[in-house]
Write a sequence for this structure.
């Protein structure tokens, strides 16, 4: 009860001088607003990356042909990764659930009548759909019969559909891949943009056998995606796969791999490394504005204490203890800082909506960063208020009443 | 009720010591109306502050209601001020952003009383004749009215001792007389009044006049006796 009464006293002081209160809040407002935006967008971005990684499959590894790009070193076209490698992995390495070999080409011209689109052409087996966690939304996916018959059939992504067909139903239509006519048998469900910025909806999937014989005229693969039974044994499985491939490719000791194994942990650590550096910088920015905010609050509080000596004196005379005065001024400082925090968080949410609109990316305000921002605002108030409040409490009441 | 023995107050100023109060001993009984007179700067305000537990003596003893006040710590003194004293100042010391009744509730905020604060404040304001001014801000009130708000504030916790430091010093004579009328009434209710003043007319209303000079009590006698001496 007594505390509630004293809180009301502090609130009335806060509302009395609105310009000053606003000035005191400014630093906190900026700090909290930036903190809200930064933390929400960083967490959001990280969440998006994680989601992509999960789509990629936490229980999957990718074997890419070639040693991976190295700056300045000319790369021979890797021709060593074969369908048989995939079969060997499936039969000889334990902990393998499924193996999906594929050949792909970026920027492959797809034509329908006078319209054209550039897509990612992927030649793969029917199990691609399960391993890549991407089903046909309409029509059907590749079948075992398509594979054995070397059928000229294609399942296409939404972007390609939009570019070529507009309102037409693409199923059953003939498209040209290069100069080869293919029948569209299905449309892939949308997948958006990959972590590396590739439009996943521009993919065109054809049977691997058809691709090898009729389109690319090559036996070797671009990559093999391998699904594991038990993801917790990933490290061991990666080592087994690597050993098997080195043996099959006759790589003597000391010569580097002619393939690259990518695991979800690598993708994740890369993503989080980028966002950590970014967020560290931005957290620094908001920390600085919060500190500036604290300094401003502390300074204006000192002025206010000096101006309100008479008030402090009369309060002491009618029975306020030092602690009462200390709590009053501390409460005022925390209230101002928290108020600034609330305004800052609101501005931050508005800013996030604006950013989401400008960048055409969903950016949800998250409660964790807002809670963190409000907590830091309260701490700023405490830190800024403690010295002025102490000065107020320790004023000699007689001096204060003079 | 108030018993002061060999009270001294020394202020440290630069390198030298200033002895503001020296060897003051007196007793003030329940229900007395005492005025303390002295030229300015002769320590009467310091003395009042010590009596009101706003300040501590440098040496000597102060017994209030059989309790040695000079041994108390700051929190205990705050509690005593809240419960036993009502202060009235020359310059009123009202909080400008608060209405009359809010100003009056100030001592209640720091007491444990949970009763309806506004009702109590309004009641006391009515007692000092400001029943129609409860929602006014201090700047909307005349000096005399402001001082009456201050008196209501001093009374709201129902203290037995009222301490006033030049209560009429900032008022015209008519307002001053109104204030002294209220003091008279409070005295009639059995409260103890201690008023510091250099206004003879104010002092003449009291039962007892204590005169101070150079930090010492130079005379302490009933008002009637002081009157006759002036007449001589």
């Amino acid at each position: 009860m007594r505390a509630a009464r004293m809180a009301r006293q502090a609130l009335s002081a806060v509302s009395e001088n609105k310009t000053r209160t606003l000035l005191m809040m400014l630093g906190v407002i900026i700090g909290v607003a930036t903190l809200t935006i930064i933390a929400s967008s960083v967490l959001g971005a990280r969440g998006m990356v994680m989601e992509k990684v999960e789509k990629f499959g936490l229980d999957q590894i990718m074997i890419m042909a070639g040693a991976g790009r190295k700056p300045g070193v000319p790369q021979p076209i890797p021709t060593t990764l074969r369908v048989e490698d995939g079969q060997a992995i499936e039969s000889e390495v334990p902990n393998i659930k499924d193996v999906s070999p594929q050949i792909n080409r970026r920027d492959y011209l797809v034509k329908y009548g006078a319209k054209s689109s550039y897509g990612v052409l992927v030649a793969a087996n029917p199990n691609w759909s399960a391993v890549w966690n991407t089903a046909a939304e309409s029509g059907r996916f590749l079948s075992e019969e398509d594979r054995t018959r070397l059928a000229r059939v294609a399942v296409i992504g939404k972007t390609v559909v939009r570019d070529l067909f507009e309102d037409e139903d693409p199923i059953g239509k003939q498209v040209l891949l290069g100069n080869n006519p293919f029948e569209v048998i299905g449309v892939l469900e949308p997948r958006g943009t990959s972590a590396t910025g590739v439009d996943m909806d521009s993919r065109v999937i054809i049977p691997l056998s058809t691709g090898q014989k009729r389109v690319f005229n090559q036996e070797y693969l671009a990559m093999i995606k391998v699904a594991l039974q038990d993801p917790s044994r990933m490290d061991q499985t990666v080592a087994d796969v690597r050993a098997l491939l080195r043996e099959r490719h006759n790589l003597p000791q000391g010569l580097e791999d002619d393939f690259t194994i990518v695991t979800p942990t690598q993708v994740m650590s890369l993503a989080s490394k980028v966002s950590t550096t970014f967020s560290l910088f931005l957290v620094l920015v908001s920390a600085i504005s919060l500190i500036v905010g604290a300094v401003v609050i502390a300074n204006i509080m000192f002025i206010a204490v000096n101006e309100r000596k008479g008030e402090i004196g009369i309060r002491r005379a009618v029975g306020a203890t030092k602690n009462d005065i200390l709590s009053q001024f501390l409460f005022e400082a925390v209230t101002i800082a928290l108020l600034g925090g609330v305004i800052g968080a609101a501005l931050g949410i508005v800013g996030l909506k604006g950013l989401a609109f400008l960048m055409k990316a969903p950016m949800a305000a998250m409660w964790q960063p807002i809670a963190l921002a409000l907590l830091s605002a309260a701490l700023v108030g405490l830190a800024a208020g403690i010295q002025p409040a102490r000065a107020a409490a320790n004023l000699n009441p007689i001096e204060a009443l003079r | 009720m108030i018993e002061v023995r060999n009270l001294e107050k020394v202020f440290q100023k630069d390198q030298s010591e200033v002895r503001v109060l020296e060897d003051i001993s007196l007793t003030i009984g329940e229900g007395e109306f005492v005025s303390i007179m002295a030229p300015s700067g002769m320590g009467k305000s310091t003395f009042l502050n010590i009596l009101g537990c706003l300040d501590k003596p440098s040496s000597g003893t102060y017994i209030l209601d059989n309790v040695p006040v000079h041994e108390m710590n700051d929190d205990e003194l705050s509690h005593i001020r809240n419960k036993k004293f009502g202060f009235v100042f020359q310059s009123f010391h009202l909080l400008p952003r608060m209405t009359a009744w809010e100003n009056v509730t100030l001592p209640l905020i720091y007491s444990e009383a949970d009763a309806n604060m506004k009702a109590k404040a309004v009641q006391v304001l009515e007692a000092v004749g400001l029943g129609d001014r409860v929602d006014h801000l201090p700047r909307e009130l005349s000096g005399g009215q402001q001082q009456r708000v201050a008196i209501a504030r001093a009374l709201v916790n129902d203290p037995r001792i009222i301490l006033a430091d030049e209560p009429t010093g900032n008022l015209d004579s008519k307002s001053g007389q109104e204030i002294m009328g209220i003091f008279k009434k409070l005295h009639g209710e059995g409260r103890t009044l201690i008023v510091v003043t250099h206004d003879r007319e104010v002092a003449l209303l009291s039962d007892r006049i204590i005169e101070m000079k150079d930090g010492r009590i130079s005379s302490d006698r009933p008002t009637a006796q002081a009157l006759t001496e002036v007449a001589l």
About this structure: The longest helix of chain A spans residues 264-307. Chain A has 13 helices and ten strands. The beta strands of chain A are 60-65, 96-112, 115-124, 136-139, 153-156, 174-177, 180-188, 203-207, 223-228, 259-262.
